Amino acid sequence: MTTQQRSNPIYKYIGGAAAAGVTLLAAYYHDRAIFDENREGIKTIGGWPLVGNLPLLLQYKEKMHDFLFESFKLLEDRTLTMSALGIPRHIATVNPANVEHVLKGPEFHGAMNDLFGNGIFNANGAEWKYQRKTASHVFNVKNFRDQFTDVFVQEIEYMSEKIWDSALEKNEAVDFHDIMFKFTLDSFILLGFGVQLNALGSKGKVPFAAAFDEAQKNTFQRFVNPIWPVTERIQKLAMPWKPSMNEHLHVVDSFAREVTEKRREEIARGEEKKDLLSRFMNARNDKGELLNNTELRDIVLNFVIAGRDTTAQALSWTFYLLMNHPRVEEKLMQEINEHITDDVMHDSPALYEVIKNMKYAHAVFYEVLRLYPSVPLNQKYALNDDVWPDGTEIRKGDYILWSPYSQGRNEENWGPTAEQFRPERWFDANGELKRETQGQWPAFHVGPRVCLGQHLATLEALVAITFLLKRYKFKLIPGQDITYQVSLTLPMKNGMMVTVEKRE
């Protein structure tokens, strides 16, 4: 603008009017994003004028789960709403009755589409139904008893020899979290796809696993960043040396397609396999067509995250809590020594039956998942107006958040000891193990989409916990910052370094 233009009273009038307009808008939308309606009857965290909670979401994006938990505590309610510029209206709840009331929504599909495609986590309708039905055949009790337990024991024996016994001899510290990721990746790739990945035998991270971790991390960040297509391009220009989302996806794609092509060649040679990938290769999609490589790629990636990440993280948080709660570890060791003999450890059918009946071990695992759920935050979408069981009025187009991480720590849900690690809460007055409703304890999701692999995950975790505790005593190296990485699941951000001793 020239000097003459600045002195022109018309320009001064326009500038003054614009400033007055912004001031009026800021006064009206003083605690929420511009043009967002005030939602009567739903408590809210006060936001900034015109932008609402966007600065808070960006400030706490690395501690999102604790931010939500503290917000529920601050408001003293189990349902709240947030208004943020550029992000659709979100209503969050930790009320168990509400949790059972929500529906799968399209934004989850959009944000995850690059990584998960149209696999079972992301699919809807007929596509989802056929994938779930086909996958359900693998997750039956007979397979648990025969194939699955054999694989878990095989991989644990390899892990013991190559990792833990070696660390004992050399008196070396080991990243427990990294080892658990390698163990579950090897186990599930072998079970699901018949491939020996040998992540446990690799010094560093397997390229597929490293790229997959970064792709997951980036996918979650897209939820809280409405302009992610722009910021990802800017980041690539500003830091060209840093691998982009597309480069991570290329690594992941190459791995999945290589697995698929190898299996096609094996089937062409007349080989028969009973793993998950083979079942899907012989299946047809909802249009009656054999699956193409892209469809199979989506399925591979969906079940890798289901089998690998969630169980690895649950094991890591289990041992973190046990190392910090020696009373619980001692009580669990008593049950293990009472039930697990050397003969049972190498008899898979017998091991399955024994572990299935170890009540305290199950209580420990359930309590870990209450405090550190493998999927700590979920999102759904309201297809129509609705009223929740707690009276909250939902409007068509609202996005719904429920936070198992916050829910498990909520005192109204779990009593005054909600933030404490107490496996005993999982026993009734008669000393019998109890299971809460899916809404109260949504560790394996809720409703028709409840996790098909929940029994597989529990079995794998308890086999690993039992074997490792019976043989070794782990100690946490002091001074570490043990916290989560914000992602689709709940990995440890900095790993977890431990020392290991032989169990007497």
Can you give a write-up of this model?
- Pfam families: p450.
- The protein has 504 residues and is of the alpha+beta class.
- The protein has one domain: Cytochrome p450, CATH 1.10.630.
- The protein has 21 helices and 10 strands.
- The chain has helices at residues 3-7, 9-28, 54-59, 64-75, 96-99, 106-116, 125-136, 141-170, 176-193, 207-221, 228-238, 245-268, 276-281, 293-324, 326-339, 342-345, 348-356, 359-371, 404-409, 411-414, 454-471; strands spanning 43-44, 79-84, 87-93, 174-175, 378-381, 386-387, 393-394, 399-402, 472-476, 497-502.
- It has a 5-stranded mixed beta sheet with strand order 1-2-3-8-5. A 3-stranded antiparallel beta sheet has the order 4-10-9.
- Helix 8 (141-170) packs across helix 17 (348-356).
- The longest helix is centred in the middle third of the chain and has 32 residues, at 293-324.
- The relative contact order is 0.14.
Q: How much is the average pLDDT?
A: 82
CATH superfamily: Cytochrome P450
Total of domains = 1
Using the coordinates shown, work out and report the CATH topology: Cytochrome p450
Number of strands: 10
Name the helicity range: 40-55%
Level-1 CATH class name: Mainly Alpha
Write a concise keyword list for the protein shown above.
single chain, 504 residues, alpha+beta, Cytochrome p450, five-stranded mixed sheet, three-stranded antiparallel sheet, 10 strands
Short description, anyone?
This protein has helices spanning 3-7, 9-28, 54-59, 64-75, 96-99, 106-116, 125-136, 141-170, 176-193, 207-221, 228-238, 245-268, 276-281, 293-324, 326-339, 342-345, 348-356, 359-371, 404-409, 411-414, 454-471; strands at residues 43-44, 79-84, 87-93, 174-175, 378-381, 386-387, 393-394, 399-402, 472-476, 497-502. With 504 residues, the protein is of the alpha+beta class. 40% of the residues are buried.
